[in-house]
Amino acid sequence: MKWSKTFIYTLKENPADAEIASHRLLMRGGYVRKLSSGVFTYGHLALRVLRNIEKVIREELDKKNCTEVLMPMVQPKELWQETDRWDVWDDILLKLKDRNDREHCLGGTHEEVITDYVRRDLKSYRGMPVNLYQIQTKFRNEIRPRFGLMRGREFIMKDAYSFDVDKEASLVSYEGMREAYHQIFSRLGLDFRGVNADSGGIGGDKSMEFQVLAETGEDALLVSDNSDFAANIEICPAIDFEPKEKSDEPEQELQEFSTPGLRTIATLSDSLNVPACELVKTMYYMLENNEKNQPIAVLLRGDDEVNAVKIKNLLGLPAEPRLLSDQEVKELTGANPGSCGPVGLDIPVYVDTGVSVLKNYVTGANKDDFHLKNVNHGRDFKVAQVADLRLAKPGDASPDGQGRLKLYRGIEVGHIFYLGTKYSESMGAKFLDKNGKLKPIEMGCYGIGVSRTLQAAIEQNHDENGIVWPLSMAPFQVHICHLDPKDEKVNQAAHQIYDQLQAQGFEVLLDDRKERPGFKFKDADLLGMPLRITVGKRGVENGEVELKERKTGASHALALGAVVDFVRAWVAENK
Ligand code: ATP
Ligand code: MG
Predict the structure, then answer these.
(1) Domain containing 75 — which CATH number?
(2) Quick one: which atom of ligand 1 is closest to the CA of 210?
(3) 370-375 and 405-420 as β-strands: parallel, antiparallel, unpaired?
């Protein structure tokens, strides 16, 4: 492609609203332009990257016998009511009405549509296993769209859905997709981890996220330093590396004492000279229900944090419970946060496992500037349940018993779920099994954020000058900087290399603009193609061009006639 004939506009300055490197580079390289919050136009270069990602996805899914389809973007309300998700997903779905006042939403996910599609024809065990996928635009009314394509409102997703006769077969499908995802993200040249994860609002009880490792990632991952255990912090069991035995000291008399101005664990710990891990803090959440709201208390060691996803899963809530505001805490307990505790409140109290082994501990007294000492659960307040409710942290024991956990940050580019019969049951997608018995179909669903993957790759592969594309994703393999469009000989050499490479099937961007060399080099670094060939007057007089590798900076002087062979060998080696 000739730059002078196409539409690529780079920016010299960093856009003000781009907070992370990949977003800045996407904008500066003219890859994307924002239309409105979380909604972008993909320029030609970005489109080529998307196509490359899609090609790898299609090839790997085809190997697993998946079949591509394309579903509607606009979905009727009635379908979402069948699964009760019309209300649950209310803040995520963009809802609209047609001219007959019928309500619809833009597809934020397609479990309902695919289940409806399949239930019409899949009536026998003979039709299974089957796995259908599409690559399509999704719309989610994200509360905080940010970081460019990372969290868009309109974004491109590959979503696949498997249908099986029973759980065992469904887990085989799940495993096949796990393998396919490993292949896909490996071929895309990404440094990633598959981590155990929460199933969120999708349903099911087994899921794995594929996380591209990057400092700026929104997700926290805990990975064993001594095994392949890896989990999203949201669900990672918290196990002390040196667990405390349950204390056998006798329970002592409850005592209130004055703690003026001591409203944080840190100041309390300093003043009482007790380590934070032996103080107990109380957090209050609201379980919100249409009929009645129920506040609850959660007790933790002073140096731990609540994991609200664990509360959600323990209590089987549709979403994470809401933390009470300071004002609500005061109304509930009579004291400001910092002087609150579980004693004397008539609400369910959940005790984290870390607290359950403690005795005679300190909590707030539910009276401003007072605490209680020698508090004991069971005696001083009723325990609704003891459970693992804290965030695991680096240094904790790996839940598989091997090694300790290390913290990484990641960008979720894929997520696979075993769904069970949640959708088939509620939507009546049933089949006749071998024995002629009517059964709900077992399902799995599998997403890849195609547009997010594009940006995650940049976040992981860039330097101070610009993008460094992995070869499999690069919009063009070769970028020719043609330095002298007015010089006949240089012109001829540049076009000769361009034509020859294209004839051999390589993708080449020829920068034939009337711009200064320094300007062209800067743009070449910014756009990030793996190989740059410089064709200039001095070199051409000696029958030579310079080829530079974007990633390593290694530079090679090549005879004009040797360029194609060099590129062929390099591409084969770096695939
Ligand atoms: P997240 O936790 O990041 O909000 P999710 O768990 O809601 O994502 P899934 O329903 O699992 O997302 O969707 C499958 C994939 O689609 C995700 O793994 C992610 O790569 C991508 N994705 C989800 N939401 C967005 C978004 N707002 N913008 C870009 N990609 C997204
Ligand atoms: Mg997810």
Answers:
(1) 3.30.930.10
(2) 18
(3) unpaired
